[in-house]
Design a protein that fits this description.
α3 runs antiparallel to α5. By secondary structure, the protein is mainly alpha-helical.
């Protein structure tokens, strides 16, 4: 009985932690905002990226990097690129960009 209560408690804590961090901004997100605007709607010569697909954002950070983004892209790890792409591609769906 104690083992099942402990297991339930551990699972509950893990789910609670995941729910708190699932929608947290990735650490390098502010770098995106500096050039693409606070809501990623575009800024001067930089295009809007809110509403773009995960695949297109990831490509712009990995294989099809625009010249202006190469310096920033080179500083990101592969995991950070994936996290940023996933987060940005979901912004419009969750209305966080509005």
């Amino acid at each position: 009985m104690k083992a099942s209560k402990s297991a339930f408690l551990i699972v509950s804590l893990c789910v609670a932690f995941y729910m708190q961090t699932a929608h947290a901004q990735p650490p390098m997100f502010n770098k995106c905002q500096m050039c693409h605007g606070k809501m990623l709607q575009g800024k001067k010569k930089n295009p809007a990226i809110v509403g773009m697909s995960y695949e297109k954002i990831l490509a712009s950070l990995t294989s099809e990097v625009p010249k202006k983004m190469k310096r920033i892209s080179n500083k990101l790890t592969e995991v950070q690129k994936i996290e940023l792409s996933r987060y940005i591609s979901k912004l419009e769906e969750t209305n966080e960009s509005r």
